[in-house]
Amino acid sequence: MKNAVPFYWIPMVVIVSCCVQSCDEPEHRYPTGPPVVLGSLRILVNDPSGSSSYAVEVDGLSYGKWSSPCVVPNIPVGTREIVVFSEVRSSPVTKVEIKQGEETSILVSLLPIRPYVGDIPPQFSASSVDGEAVTLKALRGKVVVLAFFGSVG
Q1: Which residue in 20, 88, 140, 146 is a FRET match for 79, CA 20 to 30 A apart?
Q2: Average pLDDT per run of 10 along the chain, which is 153 residues long?
Q3: Domain span at residue 99?
């Protein structure tokens, strides 16, 4: 009986063939949502410092560095918050409505990133560790170090 298959091989062949036929992963393992509709944004930067490239953020996500003027593609349709900045200047947050099939245009002016040494700080008040109210106005002329910290809980 040289051509006979040993008995212990028969169950393994059956298990392997069942697995090959029924262990395939389903085609759609995850639910799929509607396709994302995209638009584009044309940006013109007014920058007195004359930088050659600017970083663009949309809703806090980086869209890379661009020169001005530029067209940033693949932005999801809807109201978006745009920030454009260089190493030393930044635009305020600009809300823009991105529309499908249209190129939305904006002009942003970059402002110096502050504070600088010697700038007068805005009026500020807080509670000390002892619970007393402290204002910067009361500390005028003194050296002040502000340490911000917090706790979770």
Answers
A1: 88
A2: 53 46 47 75 88 90 90 92 88 91 90 73 80 85 76 62
A3: 38-112
Tokens of 52: 């050659």
76 and 82 Cβ atoms separated by less than 8 Å: no
Largest Cα–Cα separation, the chain: 106
Q: Is 93 a domain residue?
A: yes
pTM for this model (two decimals): 0.53
Provide the pLDDT for residue 134: 86
Helix ranges restricted to H, the chain: 9-22
pLDDT at 13 (0 to 100): 45
CA distances from 101 to 41, 43, 134 (A): 11, 17, 54
**Quick check: is 57 in a domain?**
yes
CATH (domain of 72): 2.60.40.1120
Domain count, the chain: 1
Instruction: Flag whether 32 is in a domain.
Output: no
**Predicted local distance difference test score (pLDDT) of residue 126:** 82
